[in-house]
Amino acid sequence: MTQPLLRIGTRGSALALAQTAELTALLARLHPELAAPGAIETVAIRTSGDKIQDRSLTELGGKVLFTKEIEDALLDRRIDMAVHSAKDMETFLRPGLAIACCLEREDPRDAFFSRAATSLAGLPAGAAVGTSSARRSAQILHARPDLKIVPLRGNVETRLKKLEAGAADAALLAVAGLKRLGLMQRITAILPAEDILPAPGQGAIAIEVREQDERARHFLALADHAPTSICVAAERAFLGVLDGSCKTPIAALAEIDGVVFKLRGMVVKPDGSEQLMTARHGVASEAMALAADAGRELKSRAGP
Predict the structure, then answer these.
(1) Quick check: is 76 catalytic?
(2) According to the model, what pLDDT value does residue 52 have?
(3) 156 vs 122: CA distance, rounded Å
(4) Per-residue b/e over 209-233, b at no fewer than 16 CB within 10 Å?
(5) What pTM was computed for the model?
């Protein structure tokens, strides 16, 4: 049996496999040798975050639950590259690993699902909103302290089924994942970023490699969408200054229009009682410096 030229590691969820298929198709178009049958092997890896569904990520240890086993395979050379939802990646990568490429970003906003209302504002007092995201919970409670947050974990389809079964009156999910799964018709409403600011990296697919692996970098060089990579790197720089983890409600969205760069960033108390925001505008070449400066500002304003 012919050995594959590339082994791509990913989680085994429908969304993760769809994201990997997007990368595989792009690489096959860019590199004729990768278009041959069997040239690229998808290696599905079950992570701790996939195995444990009855507790919140915050109490279990955070984002590392969705990346550790995949990164182990990368470091052990069982795979050549790893596909991640950029928002699931830890703020600081493990030594020897790097993000080599980002695919063009999908819609970074959050989607609202409910049979009880057509918007977050329209929910009745005391309604239960399902989410396990500290960022979403804090922003919801800041806007509507009268609502109740209930944990809702699992992949996209699992969460939608739980919502339909009455586990909550409403739920928030990322638009990008729903679009990649062909589920846009199920959305009640898309929430403007001005109302609910997305997570850093939301909507973007990041490809992780061994830092010194020039062969993997060669294959990915032409696949990179530079504006997305700049925006994701800036959002991660903002997060890094704040020492952010999934325990800390932090939101950020960077955008590039031509050479113009803009960033909105936010930190929120977990109970939603206080919300601090900042923004930066400048040229794209200064994106990292602007993002780090925004992080320092909020760190100073928020205190320990």
Answers:
(1) no
(2) 58
(3) 23
(4) bbeebeebbebbeebbbebbbbbbb
(5) 0.92
